[in-house]
Specification:
The protein is an alpha/beta fold. It is built from 13 helices and 11 strands. It has 2 domains: 116 residues, no CATH class; 223 residues, Spore Coat Polysaccharide Biosynthesis Protein SpsA, Chain A.
């Protein structure tokens, strides 16, 4: 086909059209969902978001398995939160180290610390679900706030900022749990992946489509847990103590997110690709139980992303100067959009900045996730919660 003196094959035009369509979808996805945290931050600054001024009593629940060192370092930061009335329940999940001794020592100093335990030899595929259930049953208060033993709150206002979202209609509050920044490619992958996932689940929650939360920074009501029959629908899975419960019980009416820096709950990242692979395997194993609408929404985005890059590659290899320039413009505009949205969100969460590395991360992480999903099913014996 001859257009303005340039010859275009049908293959070139179709490929460019596909790239343009994927560009439009990706741009809409970024502005509708991934920009949600930025919009929410602006609304909060303009006092357009109402928070509860009540400070009801809270039960903080932490499951701990062989967490002697982490409890010594991080548990005081939970116990010393600036909040009127709260208890901290730590469930010793049949630990083989000195976890029980450390907890007894802390109980002498902190009267609001309570403990229980999972008996050694308890038969349950996911001992963490059993531990969390025991903690919930032991909780004295209706509002439950969850984190992990290896997590550290950004401030002593963590409880206050999470709980301020509990209006009478609220059953779930989704928080953010990033990983500490360290040197190296692995850390870059982990921190970016965590940020992107948070932008996605928080943005979709703000758009009325909540589908998951993270157990290291999550709150819900005790009655809600029992009304949903706890973890009964997915006891056959190792994971799902956080995201599947949210996926089952959340709605556009009963879910809120908390994005203040004071509410952040930090964790140490995995140190090897092998350990990160097993962590991703465990996390992704629960996605098969998501609602059909959620799986469709989450599946379209990476597919459109892959088609966008594939079309650009084909245009670069086989196109003429006009299609190459057009494809390059689309790639550049999308990259600038990504840098603006991702870096502004990361700044709100005291995170790292990403520039040209976004191109590599944007391509590698979906491929790695696909690899984990295809191969992780054969690794179940190695991903039990430790």
């Amino acid at each position: 086909m001859d257009i303005l003196g340039f010859y275009f094959s049908w293959a070139e035009l179709v490929t460019l059209a596909i790239m343009l369509l994927m560009f439009v979808y990706q741009t809409c996805f970024y502005f509708r969902y991934l920009s949600g945290i930025i919009r929410q931050s602006k609304k909060i600054k303009k006092n357009k978001i109402e928070f509860s001024t009540a400070q009801p009593p809270v039960s903080v629940i932490i499951a701990a398995k062989n967490e002697e060192k982490n409890l010594q370092e991080f548990l005081p930061k939970i116990l010393e939160q600036d909040y009127p009335e709260f208890e901290v329940i730590v469930i010793d999940d049949a630990s083989a180290d000195d976890t029980s001794i450390i907890l007894e020592q802390f109980k002498d100093k902190y009267p609001h610390l309570r403990t229980t335990f999972v008996p050694v030899g308890a038969k349950n595929l996911s001992s963490k679900k059993l531990a969390v259930t025991l903690g919930i049953k032991a909780a004295k208060h209706d509002i439950l706030l969850f984190t992990d033993a290896d997590c550290s709150p950004e401030s002593n206002q963590w409880i206050s900022h999470m709980v301020r979202n509990f209006t009478p209609e609220t059953d779930f509050v989704l928080g953010y749990g990033p990983y500490y920044k360290e040197k190296g490619l692995l850390n870059k992958l982990i921190t970016y992946d965590t940020l992107f996932v948070a932008m996605q689940y928080m943005g979709m929650a703000l758009d009325g489509k909540p589908y998951m939360g993270v157990g290291r920074n999550l709150a819900y009501r005790k009655d809600t847990f029992f009304n949903l029959k706890g973890f009964s629908s997915h006891l056959n899975l190792l994971s799902g103590d956080d995201d599947l419960l949210v996926n089952k019980g959340c709605s556009d009416k009963n879910t809120r997110i908390e994005i203040s820096p004071e509410s952040i709950m930090w964790s140490d990242p995995k140190k090897t690709f092998r350990n990160w692979y097993y962590q991703k395997t465990r996390h992704l194993s629960s996605s098969v139980k998501y609602k059909a609408s959620t799986k469709k929404q989450l599946g379209i985005e990476p597919v459109s992303r892959g088609l966008f890059y594939l079309a650009f590659l084909l245009i670069t290899l086989f196109g003429n100067i006009v299609t190459i320039i057009a494809g390059g413009i689309l790639l550049l505009v999308r990259l600038i959009t990504q840098m603006c949205v991702i870096n502004r969100t990361s700044k709100l969460f005291h995170g790292d900045k990403y520039y040209l590395s976004i191109l590599f991360l944007d391509i590698f992480l979906p491929l790695f996730t696909l690899f984990v999903m295809l191969t992780g099913k054969t690794k179940k014996d190695k991903i039990r919660w430790k």
